[in-house]
Structures are given as C-alpha cells and as structure tokens.
Amino acid sequence: AEAAAGESSLTFPPLPHSYDANSHVADGYEIQTLIRWGDPVVAGAPEFDPMNQSAAAQAKQFGYNNDFVAFMPLPVGSKTPDHGLLCVNHEYTNPHLMFPGIADGDIESLSKEQVDIEMAAHGHAVVEIKREGNTWQVVKDSPLNRRMTALETEFELTGPAAGTDRAKTKADPSGTKVIGTVNNCAGGKTPWGTILFAEENFHGYFWGNPEATAEAENYKRLGLGKARYAWGKFHDRFNVDKEPNEPNRFGWMVEYDPYDPTSTPKKRTTLGRFKHEGATTVLNKDGRVVVYAGDDQRFEYVYRFITKGTYNPDDRAANMGLLDEGTLSVARFNEDGSIDWLPLVHGNGPLTAENGFKDQADVMIDVRKAADLMGATPMDRPEDVEPNPVNGIIYAMMTNNTKRKADDLNVVNDRAANRHGHVVEIIPPGTAADGNGAEADHTADRYTWDIFLKAGNPAKPEDGALYGGDVGENGWLSCPDNVAFDSKGRIWIATDGGPKSGIADGVWAADVTGPARAVTRRFYACPQGAELCGPEFTPDDGAYFAAVQHPGDEKGSTFDNPSTRWPDFADNMPPRPAVQVVVKKGGGAIG
Ligand code: FEO
Ligand code: CA
Ligand code: CA
Ligand code: CA
Fold first, then answer.
1. What does UniProt give as the signal peptide span (predicted)?
2. C-beta 300 within 6 A of ligand 1
3. Topology classification of domain 24-200+251-584
4. Whose C-alpha in 30, 530, 568, 590 is 20 to 30 A from the C-alpha of 252?
C-alpha cells in the first residue's frame, strides 16, 4: 500500500532502544538462531565443546565473529526464497571470550593449539539452509557446506600483482599461491553468482620489524608494526623478519564460487590492496560490471572498479575472470557537489617510476599512495559502499572519525570529532531518487553527491545529527557500518558503535525517497557488547539475516565470567557469535 502523506512506507512498530543480555526485534516478528560459533558445518564436524576445542574441529565448524552474510538461492541463478546457501565471513577472534583463563589483550599466554584454533576460526563458511513452514534450518552435512580458514586454505593471487617479485616468498616462489585469508569483514555478490569477501585489518597479524624490510614505506602506510595476534610466534609466514613479502599477499578482495565447494578462491589484485571493508557490484546498462568499495580507516578513500569486458548472462563460466581486467578509480568529492573518479592506472599523472610505480602491480600494491598522489578525498572511515538496486544511487557508510579536526573538514566530511558517522549518497548520472536504477551510468567520470543522514542523537544539539524528519526517541543511530536494501529499495543500516552512546547496536530501516526519506526506525537490537553485521534478505524479503559479532565483548567480560551468555544462556556455554534469522509471525515480507 502507498504511504499516506508524511508517513513512512515501513509498517513495523519502532523497537525501543535497549542495552541488555539479549537480542530483540520489533513486535510482530520472530527471531530464530540459525547457526553459532562452533556449530558443525562440513560433514564429520564434531559438536561444539568449549572446554575441549581443537583446530581440527574448528576447521569443520562455524567460525568466530560472523560478519558479511549473503543468501545465494539454490539452484544457481534462481530467486528461490526458501532454500539457498548462506555465505558468511568470520572476521576475527576474541581469545579472552573463546578460551578459559585468558585475559583481554593477553596474547602471550596462548598455546600453539589455541593460535591454530583462532586461525581456523577466521575465514569464511558456506552453509546450505532451508525454510520449512516459517522456520529456517541448516542442512546438516550438505556436500555444498564449506569452510575456508587462515590456517590451511589455499588462495590464488590473480591480476596485475600476481607473480610480481613483491608477492614472492620462500614458501611460494611463484608469488601466486597464498595460504589463508584474514580479517574478512564485509563483501558482496556478483551478477554471475560468485561471492566477494574482504581482507580488512590484515596489518595486525604480522610479527617482526617492518622497517627492516624493503617494503618499509608500504607497511608503514598500512600500519604494520604492532601485532595483535600471537600467530607469528608459531607460523613463519606471519613474521616479516622471516617472510618479508607476506603482507603484500593480504589486503585484497577475494572472489569465489559458492556453488562449487572445490573451487579455488582468488585474491583479485585489480581491486587494489587496502583495508577493504567490502565490495558491492552493479551490472551497468552497457553490460560492464562496476564494483564499489571503501577503505575502512580514518581519512581513507572510496573506490570504484569497472570491468573491461561485459557480463554474459548465457555463459556463467565466461564471467569468472571478468574482475581480472578493468580500471580502478578513487573518488574526489568537490565543493560544487560533484565527484570526479580518478583512474589509478600506471602512467596516469603522477603514477610513474619516478614516484616508485614501475608497473601496474606497484600501483595495486601501493594503491593508497597512488590515491594520495591523485588527490582523493579523505573520508570518515568508509565502511559499506553499496548501490541501491531500485534507484541506482550508491549509499556509503562513513562510520565515524573522532580524529577529524575542525581545521581539517572537507565538503563531505564536515563534522569535527565525528563520533557518530554519516551516510553519503554517491549519485551516478541517470538516476532519480524514487527509482530509475536501470538508467544509471556507473561508468561516468563525473557523479554528484549528497548527504543522506548524519547519525547521532537529535536530542543532543552537540551531536549535530541530521535526519529526514522526526525519528522519535528510538529512531536515532550511531556509527553506520553495513547496509542492505530490501526489494522495495528501502535502506537497512547496521551499526557498530552504539554502546559508546549507551545504546545497543542493531539495524534501522528508512525510506530513501518520499516524505519519510532518511527517517530511521529501529527494527532489531543486538545483545550487549555486540555489533551488528551483514544485513541480508532473501529475494522475497521473507527472511532477514542478522550477524551478531562479538557478543559480550565489553570491559571485564571473559570466557569464565562473561557479561552475557547469548544466545544459549547455558551456564556451560560462553557467548557465541551467531547468525539469527528474523521472520514475520505468520509469514510475509519484512518491513
Ligand atoms: Fe571490519 Fe570496517 O569493519
Ligand atoms: Ca566488524
Ligand atoms: Ca564493518
Ligand atoms: Ca566497524
């Protein structure tokens, strides 16, 4: 039904703010826990036993800190709403919540087996799921179920940086075969049914002295130097004193085919090397595929990639190498409301040997330096950057930037000490706010931009919040991180940082056009200590997937004495990161 004047198209009642041990959803909806850390994934996996964990078991079980979630219908290419593959990232580990007797920040006490468990708890999972009636379940022992880990999965480097001397190691003289993936944050899906997943904060995994390597400038730009994990103690490849080039093999976007459990995942070096939050795709009207991505660090950039070739809807295999050739650009936001996309191509402007770029491999490895030289606009931590399939406009989450100084503002990042973050609209020519997505030109050199909202509490003038109208007591949010669109093109924003303002993280929805544009309404709330990741819907909007990351991760909370035992609430169970599914009571579309 059309919304009345001044009204939102959303029909669910606002969920009140909370901060407690459990997750919550708006009245009229039901939460089901679908899969938790330690649940069996591949055939032969044992049940989770928190006091007797092993790396061998973890490598077959659901990993830790679920982040990105994709629902991929079965069979491939269909829009089946009730049966598919759930593809999930496992971003990082919290040893003090995973193992008994480990204090927060104590990496010294971890054994090799515990380190290997952490490595096996990183990566990615594929799980076949099915709806029976209104209840979702994992298909146990499905041959399509899969785990990828930091411990043992082999990845192939492809594109311009594959095989370059700077990617060669003692263990891999070819410079093309990498063991493991780390810090897999958000991701995306391609029109041909593959998954993209990000390697984000990879700098924190490496031991040794980066300044003593030939890559000192590169590693400094990416923040290597202080290891947050004990991996380098037991695995030479995570120690730059022993393998000085290994960090050049991380920080990429991975593409893999979830429908083929034996497929080798590829690190696509055409998409550049930085702290990828994720990458989302859109099929342009001329058949080329366009990828949008953010580099999640303070004062880093927004990127766009355009394939050289075009998508072939009739030959899935022909699309598998599309992301290996094309042009990466970085965004400059201008005072007059325009955006220029600046191509990061060897030989273009300052991207020459004189400045340290002898070829395109160098540009892709040192892409931040290339973007600096091109004059890109430093942003307030770009997290998800995602096209709305209905109106073709790209919504970019700037999560926050408390280091932004009053004398260092720019047109699109205009709040000093930005605690709450904001959402930017990146507008290709041909779009209209109320829906004209098919006419968008995602290959244009020049776009425009607008501010969708500025997060924060409108009751506190010092927050400088800006919404499309009155969001009420519970409609305000803080620190937008991940985003999804339902099939009506409404925006669903998941947050990471609410607890710093006394509210649980969760998801908020809003119209993007009409009288209630940017009037956010709270739908789902995390348990305490958690952030919310991976908003995702089934093609019929009948199910919403909520990835709850690091529940109970707050001051003083440990495995032995956690602040919540969500979602099991059993005395012998620690808090467990988990994916929950939300359905409407009695069935039907969400929202
Ligand atoms: Fe892993 Fe940018 O959040
Ligand atoms: Ca995260
Ligand atoms: Ca994130
Ligand atoms: Ca975040």
1. none
2. no
3. Neuraminidase (2.120.10)
4. 530
